[in-house]
Amino acid sequence: MLVPDNVHPDQTVYYNGAFVLKAIQASHSTDFLDLYASTIELREMSMPLFVLCVDWLYLIGLVKFNDHGRLELCS
Fold first, then answer.
1. CA separation (Å) from 31 to 12, 52, 58, 66?
2. Number of domains within the chain
3. How does pLDDT run along the chain (75 residues), one tens digit per residue?
4. What CATH number is associated with residue 15?
5. Long-range contacts for 9-12 (Cβ within 8 Å, ≥24 apart)?
6. 41 half-sphere exposure, CB direction, 13 A CA radius
């Protein structure tokens, strides 16, 4: 669930996914661990939450892995 009613809103995948998107926009194409490092500069989050955010962004078609295995925004 993206926005459960029993969790503080700033701990949701929906909210933290915005910070992951912001980090990807700044780099255009990035390695997974480099993206995590860029994201935690914007907002402190655990690795499991970061992975859930990237999974969610991939599932809704906002990010993709290119031929070199780097994450980038979908066009």
1. 23, 16, 15, 10
2. 1
3. 455 677 777 888 989 999 999 999 998 889 999 999 999 999 999 999 999 999 999 999 999 999 998 999 987
4. 1.10.10.10
5. 11/49
6. 10
Instruction: List 13's β-bridge partners, or say none.
Output: none
User: pTM for the whole thing?
Assistant: 0.87
Residue 3 lies in a domain: no
In a domain, 2, yes or no: no
Beta strand segments in 1-75, E: 29-30, 63-65, 71-73
Residue with tokens 């809103």: 9
